Amino acid sequence: MHAQASYPSLDGRQVLVTGGASGIGAELVRGFARNGAQVAVLDIDREAGEALAQEHAPRVRFTQCDLTDVAALRAAAAQVGPVTVLINNAADDQRHALEDITPEQWDAAQAVNLRHQFFMAQAVIPGMRAAGGGSIVNLSSVAWRRGPSGLLAYATAKAGVVGLTNALATAVGGDRIRVNAIAPGAVMTPRQMRLWHTPETRERLVAAQAIPGDVTERDIAAAALFLAADDSRMITRQCLYVDAGLG
Length: 247
Prior knowledge:
By secondary structure, this protein is an alpha/beta fold. It contains nine helices and seven strands. The protein has helices at 23-34, 46-55, 70-80, 103-131, 143-146, 152-172, 190-195, 199-207, 217-228; strands at 14-18, 38-43, 60-64, 85-88, 134-139, 177-184, 239-242. Strands 3-2-1-4-5-6-7 form a seven-stranded parallel sheet, sandwiched between helices. Helix 2 links the parallel strand 2 and strand 3 (60-64).
């Protein structure tokens, strides 16, 4: 196991992680809790969210929320209260053939992968302004750059995340709010292996990387912790690729 950095500036910080109940999100939550932050988790999966909160009590609190419902999202953000770190992680990488995509599927993909990121940022920015600054980290994906044909709607949304990141960073930089994105590579979470991948496809993706070996949830969390901490205080409007150089 590789060594992990610690960030004293995160101790006691109020953090909100969307989609934090499992996969990359759960590792993000663990990383912030390890650094002494108070972490609010929003996710639709009550069972996994409550288990994670219990695992890391009292530092982690869970609120069930369908992030595609903007009214519910706003209510959940109000319940959580002011935060100075927002990690927009929630996503759903459903596969669809080009010919089969319906308008409803397209809109659903944008809602879960892109739209909620803006409205969650909109909800927490007033509190960040009042606190004198903050950090927003939006999860994108290498999918938008690689353009896999089965992920047309998802890849489009994840490209939009980078555009959203750039525009938000410009809009709130004067308030000392930093906005950055992370584009994970082929992170083989249990869900990915259960739904989409086989040992053979995993091997092919690793072979396409410049650095051999698996990109893990912990690698993504390490990048997010740095971007949330004061160590990155002058870094904004960037997209950090954590993909081992996936070609």
